[in-house]
């Protein structure tokens, strides 16, 4: 099985699922994190506390919740998403989104508050002001992206619960490692583990290169 067509398929599926989950988390997390960082409304501290708690959600708890929602008797059972790649994407998005939201809010809150006044004084609209703040905080925002991706590419509990580890359908690298370990195929499990670590390193190396290039 090592480095054959099946491993290639599992690897591609892992990257597709984690990339989609991270992208959706970014689309959700960037505006929500910005709202929590810059907005002034009742309950803001409460919502920030919920987000910070969500950053430490156990993946198996997320998997249980999503499975209950998508199960045949659940509220979204008619969609028939359980044990599909989409179910894994949903679970991984729930895991990753709080990370992106929380780190985005922290990144923008760390900026000098006088910067907003300066931008408004120069005639910037609210959208232009937010865009300028994102550019100013681009380094920690890239760190938020890396953290979000790292939280899902190595996740196994939720993927196993909502995906079922079905061969050629929902088996990803982490669930394949668990399967091979359970079968006693430690050499294959180790090889898959090295492959997972290599992929994670390469993705984070690319994002770090972009981050540091931006710093220069």
UniProtKB/TrEMBL annotation:
<dbReference type="InterPro" id="IPR049783">
    <property type="entry name" value="ABC_perm_TupB-like"/>
</dbReference>
<keyword id="KW-0472">Membrane</keyword>
<dbReference type="GO" id="GO:0005886">
    <property type="term" value="C:plasma membrane"/>
</dbReference>
<keyword id="KW-0813">Transport</keyword>
<comment type="similarity">
    <text>Belongs to the binding-protein-dependent transport system permease family.</text>
</comment>
<dbReference type="Pfam" id="PF00528">
    <property type="entry name" value="BPD_transp_1"/>
</dbReference>
<feature type="transmembrane region" description="Helical">
    <location>
        <begin position="82"/>
        <end position="108"/>
    </location>
</feature>
<dbReference type="GO" id="GO:0055085">
    <property type="term" value="P:transmembrane transport"/>
</dbReference>
<feature type="transmembrane region" description="Helical">
    <location>
        <begin position="139"/>
        <end position="162"/>
    </location>
</feature>
<feature type="transmembrane region" description="Helical">
    <location>
        <begin position="46"/>
        <end position="70"/>
    </location>
</feature>
<keyword id="KW-0812">Transmembrane</keyword>
<feature type="transmembrane region" description="Helical">
    <location>
        <begin position="12"/>
        <end position="39"/>
    </location>
</feature>
<feature type="domain" description="ABC transmembrane type-1">
    <location>
        <begin position="11"/>
        <end position="207"/>
    </location>
</feature>
<dbReference type="InterPro" id="IPR035906">
    <property type="entry name" value="MetI-like_sf"/>
</dbReference>
<protein>
    <submittedName>
        <fullName>ABC transporter permease</fullName>
    </submittedName>
</protein>
<feature type="transmembrane region" description="Helical">
    <location>
        <begin position="188"/>
        <end position="210"/>
    </location>
</feature>
<dbReference type="InterPro" id="IPR000515">
    <property type="entry name" value="MetI-like"/>
</dbReference>
<keyword id="KW-1133">Transmembrane helix</keyword>
